[in-house]
Amino acid sequence: MAERMLKFTTTPRTTPSKRAADARTGDFHEIYADFIDAKASEQASRCSQCGVPFCQTHCPLHNNIPDWLRMTAQGRLQEAYALSQATNSMPEICGRICPQDRLCEGNCVIEQSGHGTVTIGAVEKYLSDKAWEEGWVQPLLAGADRGQSVGIVGAGPAGLAAAERLRELGYAVTVYDRHDRAGGLLIYGIPGFKLEKEVVERRTRRLADGGIEFRLNFEVGRDATLAELRARHDSVLVATGVYKPRDLAVPGAGSEGVVPALDYLIASNRQGLGDRVPDYESGRLNAAGRHVVVVGGGDTAMDCVRTAVRQGAASVTCLYRRDKANMPGSAREVAHAEEEGVVFEWLAAPRAVSGEALKAAGVRAVRMRLGPPDASGRQAPEEVEGADFDLKADLVIKALGFDPEDLPTAFAADELKVTRWGTLKADFRSMMTSLPGVFAAGDIVRGASLVVWAIRDGRDAAEAMHRYLEAQTGADALMAAE
User: Fold this and answer.
1) Domain boundaries of the chain, sorted by first residue
2) Predicted confidence (pLDDT) at residue 223 exceeds the cutoff of 80
3) Long-range contacts, 16-22 (Cβ 8 Å, 24+)
4) Given pLDDT bands bounded at 50, 70 and 90, which one contains residue 1?
5) What is the pLDDT at residue 358?
6) pLDDT band at residue 481, thresholds of 50, 70 and 90?
7) For 465, how many CA atoms within 13 A lie in the half-sphere containing its CB?
8) From the candidate CATH numbers 3.50.50.60, 2.30.30.100, 3.40.710.10, 3.40.50.170, the one assigned to the domain spanning 250-401
């Protein structure tokens, strides 16, 4: 079947059709159409089947990308899906929201040779959506009952990935989450135009149907301490993510109309899910008719500016202190935002929020330039003297990143050790925290990162917990025999 591959020299790179900006900004539906079967096969056939698959090595999950691309090109779609999901607990989600331009596609060999990368993410999305449509996604089957239970704190991607694997291994699994729906940032943080919520809900329904218990509206520290969860379960995984917003340290930052990015996105997603959201209805977390300034340059900032456009903002401006080439967010998301009318003020930072305490009226900003590299190796932004300017703004959204919450205090577990950054301190190999039998995974260990890394960490944590619990069972059996 080799003749079906290596078509990159004769077949141009094609992505699924994208809705025009003026059409898509009127709703929160995903912006890309699906590949049709023939187009998915054609695009998969562009894979060079290189001897060292850099796409695979640069995927945090090490998905076997060349093989499932070959199967797709050959029309072996069910086999291709089976292979793609063997290493990925949520391929339909990664196909939508992974920054492929920075990971698999950005390291595609034919991209480096000037032929344009294989559209890996679009093919992955096509395969997994096809699998759901055709009934190829099998129910979650629990392994033989081990008589042991695991508690997982956090129903985000790390917690869900760990829960699935542990259930397959035969453990009773309970997932605790403080929100009223499972999914974490997948359900409440990421807007529907990137990830429609039914995609997340059908995945969590599969887990619930497979016997995983979800205890929602449950906050550790309020409804139970960590010690109580440890007494209730044979092992506990902490996969809470990082949710504490970094603050805007300028005069006027406490004014009404200056809001954290996650509060704004959660309100929008809840409203889209049909919930009653008083802060949205009152206008506090609604951009309709308002002049919006978003401060930050990551993917969360892009989610905010594109949400504001869809809510009918009068204007939307993004302030970022470095230039376009040095922004941390996806270049693809920036391009989408520019198409949708967002104005980017590169090399600009807020100096103050003007107006009154009860109402923001604008942002005083200053032009920046890139100076010598800082400790991280990136050029440090520095102010340009006398280069201030003003922006009209009655809604200022802080999208400056996230830090860990104080979990030892929140969980009433002073012995739970953290790093100097506030993330949980976990052994690199065992993934266990300072508390025996308590493990940690995802952003609460590595800091704010990508969904695909959270899935990888969750799967690794499940295997680490399995080894620990097997060792505990063996030790208990030995003591009983003695």
Assistant:
1) 2-134, 149-242+404-481, 250-401
2) yes
3) 16/119, 16/122, 21/339, 21/340, 21/341
4) very low
5) 85
6) low
7) 35
8) 3.50.50.60
